[in-house]
Amino acid sequence: MSLIDKNVNNDTRAELRRRRQPEAARDNILAAAESLLIAEGPQSLKLADVARAAGVSNATVLHHFGSIAEAQTALMERMVRQLVFEILTIAQREGAAAQSATEEIAALFDAFESKGSARLAAWLELTGEARRMTFVQTAAREVVEARLGEFASIPDDLREDLMLACITMALGVGLFGPTLSELLGKPAGRAREVVLGVLLDQLRGVLAGI
Question: What are the Cα distances from residue 14, in Å, to 11, 23, 77?
């Protein structure tokens, strides 16, 4: 390799590093914010707390996101993207449509229960910032369209209604399921079991008509 080639390669690597640095910094901040959300709830997503958890200054967070509100929105989008990826990965597996759809619904509930998405979504709603979640609609539509091959005979409105029901119920269980179950003297996971049973019964009825 000539000296010129080496210099070109070094320049290329340096340029790639420069391009990746802002992305890596954003990822670090969002990962720290997600850990805070899961551990302490959305009230912990304050500028100083997120910066401290990420090991950066307040100014660094503002540099990459503009405001803590925009960082919160980016966090919600990141979590929704992760959820969509998980569901689409399941949808691409070979197997019966009913089994795949059952796994997708379970993944949806897992995400809202264990990753804090429901709490962040509720917080944005209660603080009047729900408009920042418009990308959820796009993500939900992406999931629905990925299922067209299996559910092509189902009318568009019904497919979207099923997705709406799944998301709404998953949010409800993520927020209140364990508490309501325990208040009624039931095991903490009983609300999830009941709601999943209702959804899966409806899904079986739809699939039986395909």
Answer: 5, 15, 30
